[in-house]
Automatic annotation (TrEMBL):
This is Site-specific integrase. InterPro entries: CB, DNA_brk_join_enz, Integrase-like_cat_sf, Integrase_catalytic, Integrase_recombinase_N, Tyrosine_recombinase_XerCD. Residues 390-457 are annotated as: Disordered. SUPFAM superfamilies: DNA breaking-rejoining enzymes. GO terms for molecular function: DNA binding. Pfam families: Phage_integrase. Residues 77-160 form the Core-binding (CB) domain. Belongs to the 'phage' integrase family. GO terms for biological process: DNA integration; DNA recombination. Residues 441-457 have a biased composition (Polar residues). It comes from Pengzhenrongella frigida.
Length: 457
């Protein structure tokens, strides 16, 4: 209610801060005196309302936030300001540049346009849900909505650690269901057809490694000869780096994606043959290039002049080979999915598949990478057959024998009963050896031999 001319200024309520009417704005104003900050500047945050009661409620809310530890000096921040601060100071120092770019792109395209102008102290869970609803209307994948929600939660956790908000309003929000990206594996026949179609291509050896070992495209492109051992009884390769493109377009070798991605794999004979062929092919390329040859990293797979392979060129080459093999589309990363599916169809345990692919969790392997390549599941058959194939035979009835006629004998004096070693006694008092203990036999599905399969040649 507007204060009339000449009306005396209403006295503030005790403990509520200052309440007064501003003649210029014609609104009631509430003000807290928080003293001086570290620079010596006095900090007096304000709120306003059309009525005294409205301004008083806002002032009490402001005071409650201050008592809860919220930094009111930054209460003018909106979500866009917070996002910029998180990207600058809230990310791990060792985060890959590509990951940072992905975070920034997701926030810029889908989160900030909806939440950016909202003040942090006014942000509610409803606003976050509205952001997800808008993404769902755009028919974005469920994984994209989960990514956007997780980033929003991380940004608000950053704000909580700096006392900019009291709680994380994105935590109780549930992600929306959206279209799920279809991922496909390859059957054994498709894998063989793919290898046959790639036989005459210079990337055939690289495709063989990716398909049979499930390497990431960047891991195969960054493989170096010092990490390849094709001699001896157990030839191996070691995944120690990944090829990445920087925001400036430069191709560089960086550490693997995760800690478990650095791994040493024993390689089967088809991979050994592919690596030996690649060594001869690269020697021929170096001889042809002459002084133009420049393989400073000693890469296994390189261009005709020794430089790193461009991921875009690899993708186009794989797609062309796939079409020749009758496969509609093949992204380089799909070979990783295919490897997991083929290993699973061969009966390899999911834990071993996860270790081979370098996953941090078996759940990632099971939910994302492993795809059934047969419509009928039969992995349980061997174990069940072991349990029920040989039922116990019924015992045959034995013919009854006639009891002999009793004969009269003199009673013999009984000997004292002496204990057996196992705690019992014999009938005639003599010590008897303990009865042998039968070993327990167990039938476990882990003892079932998996169905064998043939490596694509």
């Amino acid at each position: 209610m507007a204060r009339g001319a000449g009306m005396p200024r209403t006295r503030r309520d005790r403990g509520d801060g200052t309440l007064y009417f501003d003649d210029h704005t014609q609104r009631w104003v509430g003000q807290l005196d928080l003293g001086r900050d570290y620079t010596g500047k006095r900090h007096r945050p304000k709120v306003s309302g059309r009525t005294r009661a409205e301004a008083r409620i806002k002032l009490l809310d402001l005071r409650a936030k201050h008592e809860a530890g919220v930094d009111l000096s930054s209460r003018s921040w909106n979500f866009a300001d917070l996002t910029a601060a998180w990207l600058e100071r809230g990310l791990p120092a060792d985060l890959f540049e590509n990951a940072r770019s992905n975070y920034e792109r997701m926030l810029t395209l889908h989160v900030v346009p909806v939440l950016g102008d909202i003040k942090l102290l006014e942000l509610k869970s409803d606003h976050v849900e509205a952001m997800l609803d808008e993404m769902a209307e755009q028919n974005l994948a469920a994984s994209s909505m989960r990514h956007a929600l997780n980033l929003t939660r991380r940004v608000l956790r950053f704000a909580m650690l700096r006392d900019l908000v009291i709680r994380n309003v994105a935590e109780p929000v549930q992600t929306r269901r959206g279209p799920k990206a279809q991922r496909f594996g390859l059957t054994v026949d498709q894998a063989k057809g793919l290898l046959a179609a790639a036989a005459t291509d210079r990337l055939a050896n690289m495709l063989t490694l990716c398909l049979l070992l499930g390497l990431r495209p960047g891991e195969a492109s960054a493989l170096t000869w010092p990490h390849v051992k094709t001699d001896g009884d157990r030839p191996t390769i070691t995944i120690a780096a990944s090829l990445r493109r920087t925001p400036l377009g430069e191709l560089v070798l960086v550490p693997p994606k995760t800690f478990t991605s650095r791994r040493t794999l024993e390689i089967p004979p088809p991979v050994v043959d592919a690596l030996n062929k690649q060594r001869k092919l690269q020697a021929a390329d170096a001889a042809t290039a002459g002084q133009a040859w420049s393989n400073i990293h000693d890469l296994v797979f390189s261009t005709e002049v020794g430089t790193p392979l461009d991921p875009s060129n690899v993708r186009r080459t794989y797609n062309r080979i796939a079409k020749e093999a009758g496969i509609v589309h093949l992204h380089p990363h799909m070979l990783r999915h295919a490897a997991a599916s083929l290993l699973s169809a061969a009966g390899v345990p999911i834990e071993d598949i996860s270790d081979t692919l370098g996953h941090r969790s078996v759940a990632v392997t099971a939910e994302i990478y492993r795809h059934p390549i047969a419509p009928i599941r039969s992995g349980h058959m061997i174990a069940m057959n072991q349990l029920f194939d040989a039922p116990p035979e019924p015992k045959k009835a034995q013919p009854k024998r006639a009891k002999p006629a009793p004969t009269k004998t003199k009673a013999q004096p009984t000997k004292p009963r002496r204990p057996k070693p196992d705690g019992g006694v014999s009938d005639n008092g003599d010590r008897q050896p303990p009865a042998p203990v039968a070993k327990a036999r167990s039938t476990s599905i882990n003892n079932a031999s998996p169905t064998s399969w043939t490596e694509p040649s």
